[in-house]
Please model this.
Amino acid sequence: MTETRFPDGFLWGAATAGHQIEGNNVNSDWWAREQMMPGMELSGDAVDSYHRYREDIQLLADAGLTSYRFSFEWSRIEPVRGHFSKAELAHYRRMIDFCLERGVTPVVTLQHFTAPQWFAALGGWDSPEAESLFCAYVEQACTILDGVEWVATMNEPNMQAAIMTAMRRLAASGGDWTSPTVEAEGDDEKKQTHSEFLTYADPEIGRLFTRVHHAAREIVRARTGAKVGWTIAAGALTAAPGGEEKLLQIRYGKEDVYWEGSRGDDFVGVQAYSSQQVDANGLVPHPPHPDNTLVGTSFRPDALAMAVRHAWEVSEHTPILITENGIATGDDAQRVRYTDAALRGLLYTIAEGIDVRGYLHWSLLDNFEWGHWEPTFGLIAVDRDTFVRTPKRSLAWLGAVAQRNCLAAEVTA
Model:
């Protein structure tokens, strides 16, 4: 491939999530869950980005990236039902302002997996008050969104729905669970159990999330000038022989009801990492291979282009923003190889006429991966004792791509 340019104005950046990097989100449901569920490590101080966000944003900007996706922590802003913290709203406004001062486009996620403990105690998203409670929070969040061009109402509601579906099944059977990303640890039997745990998502939960998203979307549109959408976890699933019907069943509940819910949005966030087959029995485990990631998934950079094509089709041509794509690896050269190949595939989708607005790598920092610390996705390493940040070569490589707005003929990192 010769050097190929991305569209003018293409966003280049990296993504994070509040609970994974801030530390001490003591009012969130995930903080409580970490202390209750077997096999989960604690987030604790995380990587202290709550206090060090300026350093993190500066490292991103200095590398040449132009966009930073981060989330507001609902449980900080509304630690008690109906009581909104002016200080926490001011904190997130300072993050926005620092991005703008450094020429970095903020992409704000209003809810990234976590919710306040009081919301969970009411039944969470199953509560009949869920929509009104979330919308009350969104109204408060909108008061600090001046100058923000991109807002995602929720991160991966389809994964939240898969957890809810599985929890209902476990409650009926008396079982227990740990974390969506702990499936790579332990013996093969445990891996398969955890893989099956998140295979299915009830489409009715998807329709519930869609109603909440649409209500929040209208609030953001009425009160801000931002483009608004949500982000979806894309499995890039394919059918093994005999698995065609099972693929349609799994993919509808896990993805397609959400891509359909994106119709009418200003954009949809595509989040893709690997690909997996579906046979007549369900998901086929990732085959063992030396290139498999630290969370046990196959090295499949082509998954990004596969996911983009599917999202574009089912969403009926909603503009696409890549809000997460990356690899859990301790080998930074492998990270560059993966990202380069994923971006080349993305270029083909753009050449086909798909409207792709930007690419945000997961993740800016090595961080807390929802129950454990071993998987390293970051462009920047963090010492968890001293919090010293050490940029990896992949950060400089991606920053150079961003500054050129094109890929070189060969990988140079």
The radius of gyration is 20 Å. Residues 184-194 have pLDDT under 50 and may be disordered. The chain has 14 helices and 15 strands.
